[in-house]
Write a structure and sequence with these properties.
380 residues; 2 domains; Aspartate Aminotransferase, domain 1; alpha/beta; Aspartate Aminotransferase, domain 2
Length: 380
Amino acid sequence: MLMKYRLFTPGPTSVPEATLLQLAKPVTHHRTTEFRKLFAELQTLLQYVFQTKNTVYTITGSGTAAFEAAFTSTIAPGSKVLNVTNGKFAERWAAYGKAFGMDVKELKLPYGEPATAEQIDTELKAGGFAAVTLVHSETSTATVADLAAIAKVVRKHGDVLLIVDGITSIGALPFKMDEWGVDIAITGSQKSLMLPPGLGYVSLSPRAEAAMEKAKLQNFYFDLKKYKKSIADSDTPFTPANTLIEAQLTSLRMIQQETIEGVWKRTAGVAAAFRAGMKALGFEMFSKSPADSVTAVRYLDGITDKDFRGTLKNQHNIHVAGGQGTMEGQIFRVNHMGYSDIYDCLAVVAAIEHTLKKLGKPVQFGAGVGAAQKVLSELF
């Protein structure tokens, strides 16, 4: 049976057809007046998405590359860093700090539990910290933190920088870099920004820029001072993925047309509808603070990850993600970011109903879809 391929993993995510068509165009050269004009527009649109007046640097690489550029350009080896560790990607950033010779103190929390502003405030009272590293939306557990409250607390502690992994939040969830006081914000192209993998983005507050200018660090490709010098001329210090940059403009213009507030509202509505559909089918959500960009769902008793995701993919051509780290095999995760609309939500809920039936679970067809429809009607 013909089945369209539907991608619901939380990265890479689906890419709009217009953006894919842009990628099919002939390759152009990047050291030209035409490219500099496009790159200047990219800067303006990224600032809109980040909600910042600060420069947003474009790194050819993944979101992890952008994180490394920010981290190694602002935090000197031996510095004391507080890392909120509550998921697979948060664990990566703790490992990063240790790999670069930082004195990493971990605020360890169970998977699915967000850090609170009060917990971070308590840790910082010990003094001596150069930075706090935090995942705003922990992709592995679909858990969101109260970033506005946390940023406010961190600012109470002097020159401590707040470094935020916004890889599955920027462009999907409310994110106000300047208003909230985030010092370093990071994301990647393959999530909410509706592009294939290949570009990482990072923005620095004036406080972080000052730290970068003072820091004496050992990096070269990821030295953001080089990027700062080049971007003054709407250029990059090294060869950029210019075809991706040209295509990124297409997706960012779509965001601008919908408005960033419209994107936030749509994403929240689709996520709420999906969760309602899952609850109507007897599932429980995993996170204690669910993110709207991606939902993590606990498996019903008697259903294995292999059978569930395998059936969805092999019979319905729908690809959802499994659990990571300590939750491998215990949850599945569904994306709501980027090029994902209300009918995508209904499609995956309907396919899950058929999958449950295939796996021998009692299902009332339409129960999940109907519950989702009631929530989605509020978007119209």
